[in-house]
Design brief:
heterotrimer; A mainly alpha (212); B mainly alpha (287); C mainly alpha (655); B: 287 residues; 11 helices; C: 655 residues; two-stranded antiparallel sheet
Chain lengths: 212, 287, 655
Amino acid sequence: MERLADLLLLLVLLFGFLILGTTRLTTCIRAVAVQGGLLGLLPLVLRPQWSVHTLGLAAGTILVKAIVLPWFLIWAIREAAVRREVEPRVGYVASLVLGILAVAVAGAVAVRLPVPGEHPVLLVTTSLACVIMGLQVLATRAKALIQVVGYLMLENGIYVFGLTSLDRVPFLVEVGVLLDVFVGVFIMGIVVFHINREFDSLDSARLTELRD
Amino acid sequence: MLPGVAAKTKAVLTGRRGAPLMQLYWDLFRLVRKGAVYSTTTTWIFRLAPVAGLVTPLLALGLLPLDGRHALFGFTGDFVGFAALLALGRFTLVLAALDTGSSFEGMGASRDATFASLVEPALFLSFVVLALASGQLSLEGMLGGTQALPWGAAAPALAMAAASLFFVLLTEASRMPVDDPATHLELTMIHEVTVLDHSGPDLALLLYGAALRMALFAALLVGVLASRGRLPGPAALGLLVAGLLTVAVAVGVVESSMARFRLSRVPQFLVAASVLASLGAILQLLS
Amino acid sequence: MNLCFWGLATIVAAAGCAAVLRSRPVLADRAYGLLVAVGCVVAAAPAVSVLAGGSAADIQIPIPAPSGPWVFGLDRLSAAFLLVVLGPGLASALYGLRALGGDGSRRGVATARALFAVELAALALVVLARAVVPFLVAWEAMAVLAYFLVTFDNERAEVRRAGWVYLVATHVGTLALIALFASWAGAGGGLTFDALASRAGSLPARGALVLCLALFGFGLKAGLVPLHFWLPDAHASAPTHVSALMSGVVIKMGIYGLIRVVSLLGAPPAWWGWLVLVSGVLSGVLGVLWALAQHDLKRLLAYHSVENIGIILIGLGTGALGAAYGVPLVAVLGFAGAVLHTMNHALFKSLLFLGAGATVHATGTRIMDRLGGLGRRMPFTWVSFLIGSVAIVGLPPLNGFVSEWVIYLGLLRGGTAGGSIRLVLLGVVGLAIIGGLALACFAKVCGVVFLGVPRSDAALHGHEVAGGMLGPMFGLAGACAFIGLAPGLAVGPALVVGASIARIPFPASGSEVFAGIVRLGLWSLVLVVLLALGAVAWAAVRRRRSLTRAETWGCGYALQNERMQYTASSFAAPLLAAYGRLAGVHETHAHGGRAFHSQARELVLDGAILPAWSAVRGVLARLRPLQHGRLWVYLLYVIAILLLLLLYLAQGASP
C-alpha cells in the first residue's frame, strides 16, 4: 500500500510539472483534473480499512476536483472563446527548473518538519511542492483562467497536507476547504466570463483598470 | 536492425507494409560497394568522423554488462567515460559537418551540438540515480552483478531514471519528436543534414554508427529495467535481445503517435528529461 | 630547495640578459631562451622529487621585525603548483621569443622579455613563500608585473582600459588579502605560515572572516563569477604569450591561495564548502555560456578560464565538504581533482592561447567570423589546437577527462555517503551542463576558425607559423596527451597532494580509485588504438573505391559563397536562445530587418559594476563643495576628526 501511495504522489508531482511545462490551456486543466482524481484515490490507499469517512472523502474529492471543476473551466474556455495558449511571463524551461528546485526545497523541509504521525516523506514533500508550484503558476502566468488552475494546485497541496491528519480531524475541514475553492472558482469563472465580454481580454494585469 | 524495427512498427501502425526489417543492412551493403564523393573543402577530419562515429559507440558498448554480469571494460566511474565517448563521437561529427563549409551542414551541426549539450545533464542525472540506488560507481556494478538494482525499494526513482533515459535515447538516436529520421528536407532535419555530404562507404559507417548508438542506449535502458544478473548467460542475452526489440517497438510507437516538435520547443523537452531524472535523484535522496 | 632558488636565479639572470644585451637582439634572444629553459628545468627538479615522495628543507632568511623571518618551503602542494607555474611558463616564454619581436619591431620588446622572466620568478616565489610578508611581496610583484605585460600594446585605448580595470581589481584583491592576514595574525605570535596554522583553532567563528576574505581576495584573482569582470578584457588584450601565462598560471595563484588557506586552517566549516561549490557551479555554467556568446577568439578563451576555475572550485568545494563532514575519501578526491584540474587547465589553456595567438599572428584578426579554413593553411597549429580543444572539453583520451573523472568520483562518493553531504550531487548537474556547453563551444571554435572556407582575405592568406612558435605548442600538447594516456602518473601524486591538503592519511577505501585509474589508462589506450586502426583500415577500404572530388553539395543552390557558411554566432544561437537572458546576448536589427547584429555584453562589468560606480560618483560629486581650498576649513576638518576619534577612544576605554 505504501508503494501505491508513493506512486500516486509521484504522479501528482509529474502532472504538476506537466502544468508548468505545457503550452496548452486545456492540457493544464486536464492535468489538474487528473491530479484531483489521484488525490481522491489517495485516502483510499493510505487508509486501507475503508470507512464511510474515507470513502465519502474520496468520492467527494473525485467528483469536485476531477469532474466538476475541470468541466466548468473547460466550459468557460469554450464560452469565453479564450485563446488556447498559456502565455507565460516566465519561460517554460525556467518554470520547469524552478519547479524542480521547489521539489528539492520541499524535500529538504519535509525531512526536517515534525509532522505528527507516521507518513511517507513523499506525502509532505508532495504537499509542499504542490503549494509552491501553485504559487509559481499564480505568479508567472498571465491569464486569469490558468491562475484558477494555480489556485487549484495550491489547494491540492493543502489537501495533501490535510491527509496527514486524516485520523484526528474530521473530514468537514476538507469539505470546507473544497467548498471555499469551489465558490472561489465559481465567482472567478463568472468574473472571467463577464470581463471577457466587456474587455476582450483576460490578462489579469488589466484587471487593475477596474480600480475606479 | 533496431531502426528497422522502429520503422516497421511505425509502418504497421500507420497501416502501411513498410520496408523489410533488414533494410538497413541492405543499405549498408549497397553503400559500402559504392564510390565516394569528397568535397574539395574537406580535410582529414571529415574522413575521420565516420570511423570515430563507429568506434565510440562500440567502445561504449564494452562498458555495459551485456550478459548481465560483466562488462568487457568496466572501471570505477566509467559512466563518465560512457558519456564522454559519445560526446567524442558527436564532437568529431560536428567538426566534420563544419568542415564542408556548407550552411546546411552548419545548421545541422549547430542543432546537433545544442541538443547534445542539453541532453547531457539528463544522462548524468540518470546515472546519479543508478549510482545512488546501487551504491556502485561503475556501469558494471550498477547494471550487472548479482545484487541487482533494488526495484523493490527504489522503484519510483528508477522509473524516473528510466523515463529520462528513454528521452535521452530518442534524442541521441535522432528520433521523433526531437528529430525526424525520415524527412529529406534539409531545413527540418538534424542528424540527416549533419551527414549530408558523406557518401558511399563513409555514409555506411555513419549510418551504422548511429544505429549502434541507438542500440547502445536501448541496451542501457534494458539494463536498468530488467536486471539479468541471476539468469544463466544465454537467457540473459535472450532477454537483452527481447528488451532491445521492445524498446525499438516503443520508439516506433512514439514516432507514429507524435509529430516532431518545433525546434524552439525541443530544449523544453530535453529539460523535461533532466527534470524527470532529478526528480528521481531527489526521491532517492529522501528515502 | 636550494636547487629551486638556483633555478629562479637563472630565470632572473635571463631577464638581465634580455635587458643588458638590448643592442644585440639575436644573441640576447638565444641567451634568454637558454637561461629560462635551464632555470625552469632546474627549479622544477626538486618539485618533481617532492611529488615522487622526497622532501625538501625549508629556507629561512632572517629579517628582523616587524616582518619576521622570510621562510620559503617546498611541500607537496607547493611542488604541484610550482610545476603549474614552470611548465606553461617555459612554453609561453619560448613562444614569446618568436611571437614578440619576431617581425622586426623591437620597441619595448627587450623590456617585455625581462618583465616576463621576472614575473615567472615572482609566481614561483608566491608558491614557495611560507610567511605572510614574502607571500604578499611576491603576490604584489606578480600582480604589478602582469599589469605591465598586459598593457604592452599600450597605444590602443581598449588595452589601456583593460589594464586599468585589471589594476584596480587586483589591488582590491590584495587589500582583502592584507585584511585577511592582519585579522589572522592580529593577536601577535609570528607571521610565518606555521605560526598562523598553530593559531587556527583560536580564530573566532572557526575562521569565518578569514575564509570569506580569502574567497573574495583569491576569488578576485582566480576570476570566479561575479568577480571575473576584469578577466576577459585583460586576457584578450595582452600579447598572446602573456594571455597564456595569465590564463594558464596567474589566475591559478588564486586557487593556490584558497587551497593554502584551507590547508592551514584545517577542515573549514560546511557552509564555506557549500559556498565554494555553488560559486563553482555558477562560474562554470555562466563562464562557458558567456564564452559561447563571444565573437572574439581570445575573449572566448578567457571566458573559458572562468568556466574552468568553476570546475576547479567544484572540486575544491567537494574536498572542503568532505573534510567538514568527515568523509576522508571525498575530501581527498575533491582536493586531488582540484589540483589535477589546475595542472591540466594550465596545460591546455596555455596551449589554446598559443594556438589562438598563432592564428592571430597569421591572419591579423581575432574575430572568428572573419576566419575559416585555416586547418589547411596551418595544419600543425590546427592539430595542436584540436588537441587542446578535446582536452578542455573533457573528452577521452586526454587529460581534461582524467581530472573531471576524479572530480565526478568525489561528487558521487559524496552522494553515496550519508547525511547532508549527499547534496554535493548538485555539482554533478553543474559539471554535466558545463561539459555539454563546452563541447558546443569548442565545436564552434574549431569549426569556424579552422574548417570550412576562408571568410575573408586575411584568412585566405593565412600561413603556418614558425617552428619557434610550434615547438612550445607541441610540448604542451604532448603533456596533455601524456597525462591522458598515463593517468596513473598524474592522479597518483594528485591524490597524495589531496591527502596532504586535507591533512589526513590516504584512506584505505581509495584503492578502488587506484584500480580504476589503471583501467582508465588502458581504456584510453584502447580508444586511441581502435581509432588509429579504424582510420587505417577505412583508408584501405576507401582506396579500392572510386573517389570523386567535387564541390560541397549545395542542395541545388548554384551560387554559394564563403559568406553563406554558418558563422560562429549562428552556430551558437539556438543554444544561447535556450538560456535566454542569462546569456547576455544583445541583438539588434537594422535596415528594416535586413541587417542583423548580435553582440555579447559583459553582464557583471557593464551591467552592474560600471553603473554602480557612476552612481557612487554621482553621490560623491555632491561632496565637492567640501573642497574649496581654504586652509583654515581643512584645519577645522582635522580638528573635528581628531575630536571624534578621541571620543571614540574614550568610549572604548570606559568600563
